[in-house]
Fold each of these.
Amino acid sequence: MQSPNVSSTSGAVPAPLSPEAPVVGRLPDLLDDAVVAAWAASGAPLVELLRTAWVPGRLTGFRRGGRDAVLVTHPRHVHQVLGVGGDRFVKRAHRARPLVGNGVISAAGEEWRSQRRLLQAPFTGRGIQRWEHHIAGAARAIADRWAERARTGEPADLAEDAQFFTVDTIWRSLTDHPLDPATYEDLAGVQDIVAALPADVGGGAELPAPAAAALAALDERMHRAIADARARHTAGSAGTGLLFRLLDAAESDARYDDRLIRDELVTLLVAGYESSARTLTWVFVLLDRHPEVARRAAGDPSAIEGVLAETLRLYPTGWLLPRQAEDDAWLDGVRVPAGTDVLVCPYLTHRDPGVWPDPDAFLPDRFPPRTPPPPGAYLPFGIGPRACLGTRFAMREMEVLLGLLLPRFAIEAAAPAGEPVFGLNLRPDGPFLAHVRARG
């Protein structure tokens, strides 16, 4: 039976989609305009409109501002859009462009391919081995901080600790320098800029004054780092940080001027700390709610992988991945006209009860799965050619930190965690205050 909130744009009652019996040429089912108007008037976040449109296994969507948007959640459709449809479903405009400029996550076409090739090798499994000492050093700094908190009994903001760790890790990996307080203040301003960016491509690009000021401070810090690294580079001081790789590229590729190097640094900073910091915060929230899982992970390092995988299933930081149909395209015989916005939503895909039994429960034992999920069913870092470049780096830094903290400390929330905020990324609202206790 059709959802009461969904109307078929073809005028016929839609049949369930299946690869065996596609309905060639049928258009996706869009919400009634009145439902969309009521959502807009309510001021509710975009995720609420997506939840209203969502019918597991079906292509649905809505019309907004004269444009059609198709919601893609079924694994098969996700794979068709992101995995094999890179030339047909493209990024129209990146929501983070005011922040990252022409960095690798916002670039397109041959520019994107060239930039990605330059950065690919350092993020392979072998490539990140050169930064193991940076990850370990940043993790030890947080362990020392927690030891002091355990001694005093004062509650701490674990979201702030997660953020400091991930900023410290990526800054060391970019510049070969540990993080100092002044630099952290400028770099942490990224969170205010990200919070001001639109959740999808339909939002505005103008930054409010506080976010614009944070962006100016970030730019100044990045250009100082470039100047410092160039002076060291010119003096013959070899560095392992990614900034030095970009300076090497500038010697043979005129595109790598200071602006593009700045854009790549900010892109790597955002990709290197935002997602990991938010994921670690969600890990702390979930382990507080499930102390039996925390105890198991404290005594069994192999359990940490399941904790991280399940946290990323429930709270993928890249919860919405917008694309646009470049030309008329088809998903299981359903026509998606050229120019249609295509909204891939990992948050809803990860909650499809047909793929994930008891989808809202925190069950780390799902991982590793006995049977691999179908392509497109699990995509916390995206899939396909534009999957996150730093997936291995992110997983490694989170595993190292949790492997160091969980055997030594237990956490107990001092105040409830905030509700999820569905902005450019998915994060808990506000701080997460908790007591840190030394394990006996």
Amino acid sequence: MTIAERHYKLLMAGVDQFGGNNEIEPVLEAYRMGVREHGEAFMRERFEQSAVRLLKNMFRLGLFENPYLDPEKSAQIVGNPEFMQEGYEAQLKSIVMLKNKNGVLPRERMSKVYIPKRFMAAGKDWFGNPTPERLEHPVNLAVVSKYFEVVDNPDEADFGLAFISTPKSGTGYSQQDEERGGNGYVPLSLQYKPYTAEHAREVSLAGEPCENGPLNRSYKGKTVTPQNTTDLNMVLETKEMMKGKPVIVSMLLTNPTVVGEFEAEVDAIMAHFGVQDQAIMEMLTGEAEPSGLLPMQMPAHMRTVEEQFEDVAFDMECHVDSENHAYDFAFGLNWNGIIDDERTRKYRKVR
């Protein structure tokens, strides 16, 4: 199909809005196709149907008939202690404990903890703006100090606590690759080590059949190094410095992650999706019990990521840890072991 024919098919299927599309002509041509097939009145009604559905959401927010805020009413809502408490409890419920070897968690309150600084190499944010390199504590030490005694010498610590995040490998596009004669498309990686896409498609599913646009977006054979590849080094170095004492990892997840690069070397893993430092501390000390479940599969390696089907659920090979636990969808631990409740019985796929 032509681009206009695809737009027409989508409109007839009920699509109201095309995201990331700045070209008006295919939409207008799709309209004209509909006029030829169904008549002017039909297509005008179809477009107005979309307009009503899109505008209704805006009117429901009161953006048109009442655009001004009432400061007194806002003060009752914003920062409301009851609402804040509900939000905090939701944070606690979202934390997923992936590993707890030999019941190393929870830790005794005010025990000594060593927290390594985290290095982030220079890079670019999502919008392409440069970000400087930095070496800093990844957590508010004032908050940590309310729960543990923070020490600078790992020999004095009772356990190590490393804070990492999902590998940040960019946006999948590289201006430098295009300038070197490539198509501009590079891998997105879920592992910390440099990744070469040996098992990617020879020919991409998507392409750009427009002037000067690459029809094949394949990135097979190309290599990418995550900006935070040093997160892996930090965890492994902490393991060495602790000399057999427990090492715990707090991991911020924005994507599934190949944890096989470090999992066997650590004793516990807490995964979260962006919570307050206090919530993590309460979980580590046992003042709250983990109850979150993985909302995604954690891949065993990048090959299974590349070879999975985009439209088929549960088709990745999941990581299996040193405790023989598969990090599959709806997996999570509490203090008694693997969580088994009405949620897991409903959502966990039976193998």
Amino acid sequence: MLRFDAPIYLWLLLIIPVLVMMRMFVNHRQKKRLKKFGDLKLLKALMPNVSRFRPMVKFGLLLGALAVLILMLARPQVGTRISHEKRNGIEAIICMDISNSMKAEDVAPSRLDKSKMLVENLTENFTNDKLGLVVFAGDAFVQLPITSDYVSAKMFLQNIDPSLIATQGTDIAKAITLAMRSFTQQDKIGRAIIVITDGEDHEGGAMEAAREARKKGINVFILGVGSTKGAPIPVGDGGYMADASGQTVMTALNEQMCREVAKAGSGTYIHVDNTSDAQKQLNDELTRLQKGETNSVIYSEYDEQFQAFGILAILLLIAEICVLEARNPLLRNVRLFKKK
């Protein structure tokens, strides 16, 4: 199956019909100018070496080379096969807090960026597991449905930003509830909801949602990102977020709330700081979950095909150079572009 890794370049193909129309316009004007000199049949007899079709062929070859080069820029790829495999693993839904407070930089490079790095490292340790991604602030939605395609998970992860959700706040309960509905229907498999947040829950109901998850056999892990001492929230212009009175807003990790939600969800609270301790602890906790048989659709890695397109473009350009606009006097009797 042919796919393009950079499909945005395919829009450049719109240049082709524009160039064709420009060529037709130029040909039309040239024909009008020739008519001013005299009868076209007489002019044709006076210019026996001028070919009507050779310029068209050369132009077509150039357009073909241009189209192939554009396709090459779009990085054509071919997947060799798709297979369905049975694997033994767990299912994990990651709920990532993307509220504005996650921009705080009390964890380097920021709370949100540290969370992304943690999830990316987590996927490196997954082999037979399924992963889903929910983002939340004052609202929550599924960023990535549960899958075993870790490459796609990393791609979706890079696009996460607080601007994805207009409703600000932190509704952990809504995120957990949405995550519960995002698992597959397979039986006898370990399931985990991993909430990455600074614990500033503005809506309430998080513990009740965690208890509901526990009743369904789902463990809720809370990863608290940030410092309990608090930190200002950057706003992008070198300043920091301020309240209505002009005072700088400080955001602090609410560890107490995080521990209570993790306990209600029969999970573990893990503090995320500038070390890799949280990563190791989370990996250890997930390995303890019951592993069950999961059905996975496995896509083989795509092979780059730009080399073939590059060779084709070179061949078209060589052919364009070899075709002369005027007939070669030595080959006058060879008529490749006109019927005898």
Amino acid sequence: MLSFIFISICLIVASLGISLLSKIQRLKEAGDKIKTLNLSLEEMDEQAKLIMRTDMELNKAQEELDKKISGLDTLQKLSQEINTTLEEKQIFKKIDNKYLEELGFERSLAFLWKSLEREFRPYLRLGYNDEEAAKIETALNANKDYFLDLIQNGISASSEFMPEGFLAKDKIRRMFLVHSFIICPVLTQEGDRGFIFVGTQNTEASITKGDQEFISILANQISQTLDNARLFEKIWKSQQELEIKVEERTRQLTQALEEVKTISKRKSDFISSVSHELRTPLTSIKGYAAILLTGKLGTMPDEIKNRLEKINRHSDELVHMVNDLLDISRIESGKVDMKIESLDLKTVIEKVADLLSEQLKTKNISFGSNIVDSCQKIMADRGQIERVFINLVGNALKFTPQNGKININANCANKIIQIDVVDSGFGIPQEAQEHIFEEFYRVDNTINQQVKGTGLGLTLVKHIVEAHQGKIWVKSKLGEGSTFSFTLKAGE
């Protein structure tokens, strides 16, 4: 019996031991799990903290980004406002409280340095009353050297960053009655320089790098607009001065032109009058010489006849000169009636060639024409245009040596015909070409001394061509001949 009880007790003890060991094992496993869970919780806590920090940083970055976008939008609108004026004082008036508040400030001042007065003058005042502004201006000019150095070096200052050697932050705060501030120099290419100041009394506000960049951009915009305004003012003043000079010069030229017209009219009237008066005695001289040459008043010695023939010949030359002068005078005064009609250019040239054929044969000069088929018709007065060709071809004849060439060429474009009278003559010096169409002008050389002329033929030609609304000019080289060119309207 005792042994049974002992055995039972042993079994119970053994069973309890096994159960205890099992529980200890489970407790150990539970402890390991708790440790693992604690580690996981710690990791999760660190991750949560990291997420919160990241979220805060992202929110801060987002706020900064939103602030920058808002600031850039404000600067763009403000820039557009500033650019609408070119008056110096109006530029600063475009900056108002609305834009300043959008940039996060409620107070602003702008000063420009006046070199002659050696002081800063206010151009902008926002958020300050008259008394405050006056005190600030006085304090500023008392410390002007600091601000001049800041402007000269092109450095910005703020409540977050103060350049070395500048005034202390607290002194700036007291001077401008703010907690946070930014000072940016306004630098122009020429003229007065200065600075713009912005600030806030909000003690919780802080100046960021972005804020300083915005005010720096605004200061640069003001600088450029000031330069544009001063440049515009200079241009405007120059334009006004130029207009006055042009007006005065125009008045002088108009007066001179009127005097020239008066002189020209007097000259034309004088030439016309004198030419008419000359005709009568010339006609008498020529008539009496002709009567004497016929022998009706008796036989005369050959020596007297020769002199009478010279009188007759020179009288013809004088009559020709008088007629040319009269024609020039009439054309200048518009008294010549032009009968403009469509003419065949080849027919006109053939007639002129026939009239001058004897002179061409005498000097054995080759004469030809080259007229484009589409340029056959011209609009001109028959009699006057024949005189143009007679004078130009006759002039070429005088200055073209034996066995030379004279050609007439014609080309057309845009209903304008250009006619060229080309010769292989001696040519015209360059310095004489610009005077060749002037009245009584003759080139001073040995060739001209041998060739008779009045210096009126080319003048008459020029007036006739211009009366046809054409132009005439000459191109020539010594020893290579000359080309006289003129234009006429094409006929139909």
